[in-house]
Structure formats: structure tokens, C-alpha cells
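User: What would this chain look like folded?
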Amino acid sequence: MEFKVKSELEYEIKGPSTLIFGIQALSTSSQRVLEESLVLEPSSVKHDQFASPGGDSRFLRVVTNTETKLHVRYEARVNTQYKVLDSAELARVAVQQLEHDSLSLLFPSRYCQSDRLGRLAWQKFGEIANAYERVGT
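Assistant: Here's the prediction, encoded as C-alpha cells.
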């Protein structure tokens, strides 16, 4: 499936600053970035791009030396390959059987406080026995 992503951000920087953005699409075995565009205004602002050590995230570092109005625009066209699974084939997986790279996704983060969200999810959907139906609700 092909889709477009876009992010547009504007900041009033009051003094020398370093900003780290995680707004760029990632190419993986199941996702390919077909086109992308990154525009910074003012164009003279110092910046560099880098990936996380595991290669699972891309970042943009912007360094401003003075007070400025910063405008960041990112657009991409991305193709994603996915497989539709039959719900009858899905089963619960015990925590001790999860792959190592999945375990870190269970921890709280600034984006998702999983401990709080987990309580709400169990209150709302805990009575649904089938894991697939629980997720699809």
C-alpha cells in the first residue's frame, strides 16, 4: 500500500538551541521510502541527519546559534508491504515467549504510558476472551 506522510512544524527560538526531531519515515524490509523532501527555513540553519544505533529510527538535529523563527517541513511517499492474517491462526503469546526485540515495546514511554493505558484497556476490553477480537474492538 502506498501512502503520503507530511509533518510541518514552526518554532520561535529564543536563543542558541539544539533540537532533535524524529519525523522522517524509515526504510525497512516491509516499508520503502519512494520519495521524500525535507525543507528547513531559514535554509542556513546547521543540521544533520542520523539513525539510531539499531537503525530503527531516523533523526534530524538542528542547531541554531541565535534567536530565529524555525520552520521544518517533511514530506514522503512510502510503500508498505503487509500480510493479512487469519484471526483463527492467531493465539496469545506468553511474555516468556516474546521475542527480545518485542519486550521493550511493553515499557512505558513519554509517548505511551503503558501502565496507565493498560489499566484502561483492561477495564474497557478485558472481558473479551479472543485476543484478535480484543485488539479489533
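Residues 15 and 67 are 4 Å apart (CA to CA). If you want, I can go into more detail on any region.
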